[in-house]
Amino acid sequence: MDTIAGLFSFITTPVSWIIVQFHKLYGAMFGPDTGWAWGLSIVSLVVLIRICLIPLFVKQIKSMRNMQALQPKMKAIQERYKSDKQRQSEEMMKLYKETGTNPLSSCLPILAQSPFFFALYYVLSKIASGDVVGVINEPLLASARQAHIFGAPLAAKFTDSSAKVAALDASLTDVRVVTAIMIILMSASQFYTQRQLMQKNVDLSVKTPYMQQQKMLMYIFPIIFAVMGINFPVGVLVYWLTTNLWTMGQQMYVINQNPTPGSKAQDQYLERLLKGATQHGEIRSRRKRKVVQTLVAKGSDRNDNERKFVSSLAKAGYAAQADGTVIKSETIAAEAESGAAQRRQQPKRQTKSKRQSGGAQRGSAEGRSSSDSPSDSSSDAPSDSPAEGSEPTTSLEKDASQGAKPKSKQAGRANSARQQPKSGQRKGQQRPKHPSSKK
Predict the structure, then answer these.
(1) Which of 11, 146, 319, 356 is 20 to 30 A from 418, alpha carbon to alpha carbon?
(2) Residues 42, 150 contacting (CB under 8 angstroms)
(3) Can you give the C-alpha Rg of the chain in angstroms?
């Protein structure tokens, strides 16, 4: 770590100068030799650096969203050119160029602030060893060595020996307790920031390996920082904890005000926007009007959250306009209610298995009815023995009635034969053949 910090020693002078200027301000308020003066100087250094990095943070957000949107296309390219790695790389670069996406943009804030991080580490290491560094002269060095944060010197580490900690006028127990708490807070804030991003600000409709990688990093990064944290001085832990808290707050603001399309955060944002529009009858904020304007311009390309917002707005009697405003209309609400009623009246479509089982049940019912019909007809038919009170039937009448039955059966079979089409013959009623045609 000392070797890496030495590589960035060229910016130790600017970093030490910024710390000294803030120390003058806070020293006048809390005393020059207090931990509050030096600790708040480091916190102010972080805030100043992060404010300067806001444009890079915006690029990082855009890059992450573009990468999420490109994951299905990237997966298709990988499957298509599975055996040709060179062609796969060429197609990936072509896709990045067409969409204006830079995969390294998501790492820009970390890369940009890493020189300041290592420069601060180098400055605090020199303070611990009693060496003058940058613009920190002998009086400032003595003041920094006397500064303690909750009993732990700024330059002390978790791994320092008791003799080294005693030279800084502190106890080893205080140093290890303070550093352990700060390492836990640093790792917890890192984990919460990544978890908040994965749960709320990710398009849930896109399931790709990129999502699995982000989930792995959510658990790996806190462990890495916890292991590295035992070698950081207290001042560096203050720096890193502050930057993690800044990142967490900055990300919470972005998630609440500019969520990723299709994410859970977008659904919550549109619900708040709908509530405000229906309560006030208008959209007051210019930024929110721009969101509605973009949503209207999408048309049929809206995602589920956006379609839900438009339909809920219509049910409340409002319609979104192309300029981002909303207008109230009773006809829109009536149309939305009638459309919902029609959807409720429509029967649900049955699955193929249910339709097949229903057809089989109807077929078995028809088979049972046809098998039961002869017995029913025989039971309903008059018996040969005359009933009491009825006139006896003559044999001629019996013969006539018995002769009529076979004829009716033969006629029924003939009719059914005529009704069933032969193979290759058109269904339905057939045209009579010409007398001259062959039978």
Answers:
(1) 356
(2) no
(3) 42
